[in-house]
Amino acid sequence: MRTTPRSKSLFTAWLFLGAAACGGAGETATTPPAEVSDASTTGDASTTGDATAASDAGTTSDAGPLPPVTCAFEIAASGAKLCAIDPTKTTPGVTDTFGFHAVGFPATVTADTPVYVHFVGTGGDPAKPATQTFPNQLLMEELTALGALVLLPAYDNEPSVGALCKQDLDCYEPVRDEILFGDDAPAPYTSMKDVKKPNDALSRIAALVDALHRSGMLGATPPAALAGGKLDWSKARVGGHSQGGGHAGLIAKRFAVERVCFLSSPIDGAPDGAGGGLPVPWTAGVWATDVSRRRAAVHEDDPGFAKAAANLAAMTMVEDTHWRRLRFATADPHASTVKDPAAAPVRRACVL
């Protein structure tokens, strides 16, 4: 748990069906699970805004052109490279309060390289400068070995949305909006978070992509999803674990994406009093991303399983078609979806 305050309140048959029942892991074994811690590209409706991640990030500042960035530390992995990026080097005003960004580069990058943006769960750092480690190294190595470029942005993920909203079902969307877009949540949720641009998640991602582009780290022919140093959500895949999966889902509801992957998520909501869960309102209604492009994996022993199942049903996602229930033995059901090697086929099918 970091000591830096983060809130005003102190704080094509898809592979799931062919995979053997298996499970995985989360940010840490102590992440509370109650937040705890392909048909068409257009979907149910047009996007609610520009599908290109927008922010004030750019290649210049008042002091002139921004300098290139380099890996603060890196790990070689079977021809691929895992690279930590200091957020403060990407554009002025961006902090390193939430750890370093992590980027997984496959051995070869072309215009056809898939791009996956992954939001870590509560308390998670994509890259830890103190120990020069990547907590999600397994996930990054798996996906880069399959040819994907992986972005794990460091963002404001403490306290968790679940810890703030608890059983107030209407609270989750505006609080997530503030974390993602830097928009002040309306009353009565105004004091729950204090996220301002350029430290909202999407501005931080935009600054990261711009920095990689201006530094030549995307190669001579960058992936189409990152062309020109801008993230085009319509050509990207997005996902996340636990709290992070909910953020990915809200992005996929607002913008049409190539694929959205929920891992041990979304677990917003409340118990229904009968052993099930009550979904949150944001999971229902019209989505910019078609249901055929939504995937999920949740372990049946996850404490948040009932809420996740209720939310997936509200999204019209069908078990064994759009999402997979994991049943294998694991010491940490909530974390298993991202950290257990047995869940590798499920992760691959969810993302790619």
What does this structure look like?
The strands form three sheets. This protein has a nine-stranded mixed beta sheet with strand order 3-4-5-7-6-8-9-12-13, sandwiched between helices. Strands 1-2 form a two-stranded antiparallel sheet. Strands 10-11 form a two-stranded antiparallel sheet. It is 22% helix and 15% strand. α4 packs across α6. Mean pLDDT is 87; it is low at 1-48. The chain has one domain (38-169, 199-351): Rossmann fold (3-Layer(aba) Sandwich), CATH 3.40.50.1820. It contains nine helices and 13 strands. It has 352 residues and is α/β, with parallel strands linked by helices.
Name the quaternary structure: single chain
Task: Give, in spatial order, the strands making up the sheet with the most strands.
Answer: 3-4-5-7-6-8-9-12-13
CATH-defined topology: Rossmann fold
Order of secondary-structure elements:
HEEEEEEHEHHHEHEEEEHEHH
- Overall pLDDT, averaged? 87
Number of helices: 9
How many angstroms separate the termini? 32 Å
Largest sheet features: 9 strands, mixed
The count of strands amounts to 13
